[in-house]
Design a protein that fits this description.
Shape of chain B: globular
Number of helices of chain B: 12
Mean pLDDT of chain B: 96
Radius of gyration of chain B: 19 Å
Largest sheet of chain B: 5 strands, antiparallel
Structural class of chain B: alpha+beta
Structural class of chain C: alpha+beta
Strand content of chain B: 15-25%
Distance between the termini of chain B: 52 Å
Number of strands of chain B: 14
Chains: A alpha+beta (163), B alpha+beta (288), C alpha+beta (782)
Low-confidence stretches of chain C: none
Low-confidence stretches of chain B: none
Helix content of chain B: 25-40%
Helix content of chain C: 25-40%
Distance between the termini of chain C: 60 Å
Mean pLDDT of chain C: 97
Number of helices of chain C: 21
Strand order of the largest sheet of chain B: 4-5-10-6-7
Oligomer: heterotrimer
Largest sheet of chain C: 7 strands, mixed
Strand content of chain C: 15-25%
């Protein structure tokens, strides 16, 4: 396509969790809907669709972003990581393992967003203080856990990487 | 909560983007980081015919300084400002303001230009741009012009930018060597838009006397408000409690707030007074 | 395994992203719904033009209230008249008929190929309204000249319940000290992170309707869908898949679920409705908004003589289906006496309609308001009497030796630890040390406070309790325990987990009953074709009732297996037990055979079994809990108030809870921490706000604020276990508990912090501005 023209549909190429996808999409289609309903990657959840709850957080080109505030066309040629891509085969990512060990989830709806936000937080600050973890995760809402065990889980992963 | 249909283009250069805007007329809107604009589209509060997506314009994502100015490209993400060593060295207040914007994922994507043009009167970038007397460089198909931040904001979500213009660069004066700053924000929760925010920069002379001052408030007026009356009170003083109290009164008298569910107009005016005093004390404390 | 910190069975599928929430279900050929909702709080519908929407190329169907009036019954809550003589029922039409009663009420529905186009077409539906005067304030709604939400009522009062027990009047006359206050609470809501939603699918060849819904009450939903659509219930399957939180909000039957089912029947295509967050905030269920006037009478040594309360709930426009919105005020009122000995009590519970979203059940229902009322009055009395607030409570609490204690409202509190839990919480804080710290801080112009909130909760209400209200609702629960030839166990239970960890805790209960490892027990809930009829999950009921049904069914299964084993081995069955995967002798532990061998024998080779024993290893039991099962707790909060901004910073939050025997301490602690977070929201942040035109001002998560990771401290939790003498294993309920006392503890702590100013803390949420306003009020009174 000629990028300097207006269009209603576009064909995009996206690499998600190491796998390449090519799809034609309507330009208004939200990236979250594209991942969930076009690619069937339903681990990413939609909790508010206005960028507040953080449930739809994913990694795009190495940065955590809200997939409800991006159009799928904006992910053209991007590299995306979702919760489905965190584990190596049957081996959970250390964050997933720590969330399990510390009882950091109840209903589980917000969990994917927390995992991806924590992933970015630890990538940017591998040894955060408890206060830094709290602020780093303050853009993700959880209604079940009261956050304490989520913070402990992230702290545990940071502590592991210390030793 | 899905956006209404629109047309979309994603130019690879500012030139292309300006041509698209020109072609799209009043119906085309610029998409920067989208952290405020896309929610409005999803909620169908804003409806538009055409979007010009600037996210491919790497030429507008930079932080660089010259002799007396820090120049930040409009598509620079908040997070880049927050962690920039250059910013930390020459105008650390900007790093602090950037760190207060939303949450990590918002700062990773949202841009300084997008925040300025969105012109939420409680947002961090408009506040510090006004306080520091930043200059905004805007281009259209035909011309380039520079507007002072203090002239740019016209009202809530209203600015001096024309539909065919793109904000390209923000120019902040470097902090003078003797300058200290204060930044105070009152939010219901961290990352929320401020109920009231105050930013100030003071310069302290040899004998501990304030030689220059600038102060602005956000969240308490139709626009971020630069308040010269405060500067008059503070300049020439040694930051005595009575002076700060008088300055805070001046600030509270200068604003004309409107209320919302997080704070009434009266509350905001009171908070302007409290936060002005705290910001001035914070700055003065750094000078000691 | 009861009492063990077992890691959750359900977690790996969540963490690996393999859950199935209802929006994850993409059926082939499915279509999407979008509702057209009223922008008016109160208006007559004078016309609807759907032609433009119908002309949209992606639209299959548009329905208005007129289209469904004869074919879908309205949601109408009926109590048995003799038990609720003042109750006035109302119709809640699934799509508005003639007039709308709140902003967000469904007026029409559009069916299109996907949600994007459905919203496009919904924007094309043109509804003409004639605005009516709005009833937005609950006290004004009681004015005889107020406009009416439901004209046929003649006023706006849904129900008034008046009760007087004991000599209240004379007790107040003779009292040495009377405290009284008016309280006003916020309009809160459950706000699960997953909004409501459902997928309905109809298979004509089998005349079978399947409804996947994000619900807490699958069987209740099935029963009412059948009745409202006049469709045979035995041809309906309701499935609650993974559900992303409920907290009461999803314990109702909603118009949207009925409409989606109807459209699936009409179109013979799968229909999906996923609520968006704006709809959830404005048009799901609100909770808890009340205005309370209450008084307590004491003698001079601080003994409570009597209590009085008038609880007026702003129930909004309709009555939550099928339980009824009058629940809220009645529950707040009747729980006011709390863990204290109150010799005389009168209350009035008034439920009043306004032009707002309907009030439904939300974690704790009326209890947080009843507890806030009582606990604030206790602190006010302590100050008046010159007693320490902790001391005043300890003097009036039901003592351990008083159990079973019958309260003034006739509840039998079977066991508990009211004084002990408060004392332990104060010890965990270091109460006297905090008082010293507080005094020192005040000298430096810093205002620290400590607040106490104590409650007793009737968990797992019984069928008898609902019968007394004249309500069509059971308190029992059902479970089938099934053993297979490998000796592994499947539990089929009528409750539903949406975060409560049933797959783990139920497995722990069955593991103990049947002597098998937790890993050998699988728990299935939520599918009405698979599990026996049950009431779902709400009211802190699942551990008691689901656990009770599992215990009962497991015991039946165990007894049968032991009987057969005894006959086969000629060892008396009372000397046999199931343990560690074996059938063994109790006396010396001698193994007879692995459980799986007996299971295989019974299931695969029943020919050699004693002739009077049936084959098969499925056992179903229905468990009716005792009239009430009482959990208790004491909460203690410390905080600092910034008297310039009104901001509150929580310092510590301590909970000592007693839910009887704990099945899994990790899960219980998680429930408490999460409950406290919601209670902090109730106390400090959350309020669904309407303006005087009934316009809804908090339609996004930037306006309706719930606490974040920064706002909720690590709760320090202590446990006391006073087992119930009436339930299997002594288990009591715990789910709601954490959310009940934070408004009381935090409001008391704010009042304590600001005691030098004599502030009346009588409103929640305590937003920064409200705290300053209360401070201003105190200063102007001084």
């Amino acid at each position: 396509m000629n990028n300097s023209q207006f269009t209603e549909r576009l064909t995009i190429h996206v690499r998600v969790n190491g796998q390449d996808f090519e799809r034609e999409v309507e330009v208004r289609r939200l990236l979250a809907d594209f991942l969930r309903h076009d690619l069937g990657l339903t681990a990413t959840h939609l909790g508010c669709e206005h960028g507040v709850c953080g449930a739809c957080t994913i990694m795009m080109d190495g940065e955590s972003v809200r997939s409800c505030l991006l159009f799928a066309v904006q992910a053209d040629r991007a590299e995306i990581l979702t919760v489905e891509g965190l584990a190596q085969g049957d081996d959970m990512h250390p964050l997933q393992q720590a969330f399990w060990d510390k009882h950091a989830l109840q209903c589980g709806f917000c969990t994917s967003g927390f995992l991806m936000s924590a992933y970015d937080l630890l990538q940017k600050n591998p040894h955060p203080t408890q206060d830094e973890i709290r602020h780093g995760l303050s853009g993700n809402l959880c209604r079940c856990t009261g956050y304490a065990n989520i913070i402990k889980a992230v702290q545990a992963v940071a502590d592991q990487s210390h030793s | 909560m899905k956006p209404a249909p629109f047309m979309y283009a994603r130019p690879d250069s500012v030139e292309e983007a300006l041509a698209l805007l020109q072609a799209g007329g009043d119906e085309a809107k610029v998409l920067a980081g989208g952290q405020s604009f896309v929610p409005l589209l999803n909620l169908r509060i804003a409806s538009i015919d055409a979007v010009v997506d600037l996210n491919r314009l790497s030429e507008l994502a930079y932080i660089k300084r010259d002799a007396d100015t820090l120049c930040i490209g409009a598509m620079t993400r908040h997070r880049q400002v927050e962690v920039s060593e250059e910013v930390q060295a020459v105008q650390p207040l900007l790093a602090r303001a950037a760190a207060e914007v939303g949450h990590l994922a918002i700062r990773n994507r949202g841009t300084i230009g997008g925040s300025l043009v969105h012109a939420d009167p409680a947002a961090e970038w408009p506040l510090v741009a006004v306080m520091l007397d930043a200059q905004l460089v805007m281009r259209s198909h035909q011309s380039t012009r520079t507007v002072a931040a203090r002239e740019f904001f016209l009202g809530p979500l209203m600015t001096a930018i024309e539909p065919n213009e793109i904000l390209c660069e923000v120019r902040f004066p470097l902090a003078p060597p003797s300058a200290v700053w204060g930044f105070q924000e009152l939010c219901r929760r961290p990352g929320d838009f401020a109920i009231v925010a105050v930013a100030c920069q003071l310069s302290r002379g040899h004998s501990g006397i304030c030689s220059a001052a600038a102060l602005a408030v956000g969240g308490a007026h139709a626009t971020p408000l630069h308040i010269p009356e405060v500067e008059t009170v503070i300049s020439g003083s040694k930051g005595e409690d009575a002076v700060i109290a008088a300055a805070a009164e001046k600030a509270a008298a200068a604003v004309d707030p409107s209320g919302d569910v997080h704070g009434s107009a009266d509350y905001r005016r009171r908070m302007v007074k409290v936060l002005t005093a705290r910001a001035l004390k914070e700055a003065w404390g750094k000078a000691a | 395994m009861i009492g063990a910190r077992v890691r959750r069975v359900e977690d790996p599928r969540v963490l690996l992203g393999k859950t199935l929430y209802v929006d994850d279900l993409d059926l082939p050929d499915a279509v999407a719904l979008a509702f057209v909702r009223s922008p008016y709080a109160h208006a007559r519908i004078t016309g609807i033009d759907v032609s433009a929407a119908q002309a949209h190329s992606d639209v299959l169907l548009v329905l208005t209230g007129t289209d469904v009036a004869g074919v879908i019954k309205p949601l109408r809550v009926e109590y048995e008249a003799s038990k609720a003589p003042t109750h006035k029922p109302c119709d809640w039409p699934v799509l508005a008929q003639k007039k709308v009663r709140f902003v967000g009420e469904a007026v029409a529905v559009v069916v299109a190929t996907d949600r994007y186009t459905a919203e496009d077409a919904a924007d094309l539906v043109d509804v003409e309204y004639e605005a009516l005067d709005t009833i937005w304030d609950v006290e004004q709604a009681l004015d005889p000249n107020s406009p009416l939400v439901h004209e046929e009522w003649g006023d706006n009062v849904m129900q008034t319940v008046q009760v007087e027990i004991g000599a209240v009047g004379s007790a107040f006359q003779e009292a040495d000290c009377v405290v009284s206050e008016r309280f006003e609470t916020g309009r809160h809501m459950a706000l699960p992170m997953e909004t409501r939603g459902c997928v309905a699918s109809f298979e004509p060849s089998r005349d079978a309707l399947t409804l996947w819904s994000s619900t807490q009450v699958p069987h209740v939903l099935r029963t009412h869908i059948a009745a409202l659509l006049d469709f045979p219930e035995h041809h309906i399957r309701v499935v609650a898949p993974d559900v992303g939180g409920g907290f009461g909000q999803k314990a109702h039957v909603f118009p949207e679920e009925v409409v989606a089912s109807y459209i699936a029947l009409q179109l013979k295509k799968p229909v999906k409705w996923i609520e968006d967050r704006r709809e959830n905030l404005s048009a799901s269920m609100h909770a808890k908004q009340q205005v309370v006037h209450a008084e307590l009478a004491f003698n001079k040594d601080g003994t409570i003589l009597a209590a009085k309360g008038r609880f007026v709930a702003d129930v909004g426009s309709y009555s939550e289906f099928p339980w009824g919105s009058a629940f809220e005020a009645g529950h707040a009122a009747s729980t006011m006496p709390g863990p204290y000995k109150v010799p005389a009590f009168s209350f009035e519970a008034v439920s009043v309609a306004t032009n707002k979203t309907t009030i439904g059940v939300y974690r704790g229902v009326g209890l947080p308001i009843g507890v806030l009322t009582m606990e604030r009055l206790m602190d006010m009395a302590a100050q008046r009497l010159g007693l320490d607030p902790a001391e005043l409570r300890l003097r009036n609490m039901i003592r351990k030796e008083d159990h079973p204690y019958t309260t003034i409202v006739g509840a039998e509190i079977e066991s508990g630890s009211h004084q002990e839990s408060l004392q332990k919480a104060l010890d965990m804080l270091g109460y006297q040390g905090f008082r010293t710290e507080q005094a020192q801080a005040r000298q430096h112009g810093r205002y620290l406070g400590v607040g106490i909130g104590c409650y007793v909760e009737g968990t797992a209400p019984s069928s008898v309790a609902f019968e007394s209200m004249g309500l069509n609702l059971g308190g029992y629960e059902s479970a089938t325990v099934r053993m297979d030839v490998a000796g592994k166990v499947t539990l089929l239970v009528g409750t539903h987990s949406h975060g409560q960890s049933h797959e783990t805790t139920y497995a722990q209960v069955a593991a103990d009953e049947l002597g098998v490892p937790v890993a050998d027990v699988r728990v299935i809930e939520g599918d009405t074709t698979a599990v026996p009829y049950g009431m779902g999950t709400w009211g802190s009921r699942s551990a008691v009732t689901g656990g009770g049904a599992i215990s009962k069914a497991s015991q039946k299964l165990r007894n049968k297996m032991l009987r057969i084993a005894a006959r086969l081995s000629e060892v008396p069955d009372d000397d046999l037990e199931l343990a560690e995967g074996l059938i063994r002798r109790k006396t010396d532990g001698t193994p007879l055979m692995p459980i799986k061998d007996l299971a295989q024998r019974i299931l695969m080779r029943p020919g050699g079994l004693p002739p009077d024993e049936e084959p098969g290893l499925d056992m179903t039991a229905h468990y009716e809990p005792p009239p009430a099962t009482h959990a208790n707790a004491s909460h203690v909060a410390t905080l600092e108030v910034d008297i310039e901004t009104g901001q509150i910073t929580l310092l510590r939050y301590i909970v000592v809870e007693d839910c009887g025997t704990i099945i899994n301490p990790m899960v219980v602690d998680g429930q408490i921490q999460g409950g406290v977070a919601q209670g902090i929201g109730t106390a400090m942040y959350e309020h669904a706000i309407y303006d005087e035109n009934g316009q809804f001002l908090t339609g996004t998560l930037m306006d309706y604020l719930i606490p974040t990771a920064v706002d909720v401290p690590q709760v320090e939790i202590g446990h006391i276990e006073s087992p119930s003498p009436h339930t299997p294993h002594g288990i009591k309920g715990v789910g709601e508990g954490g959310a009940i006392a934070p408004p009381a503890a935090i409001a008391n702590a704010v009042a304590d912090a600001l005691s030098p100013f004599g502030v009346r803390v009588n409103e929640i949420p305590l937003t920064p501005e409200r705290v300053l306003t209360l401070l201003d009020g105190a200063k102007s009174e001084q």
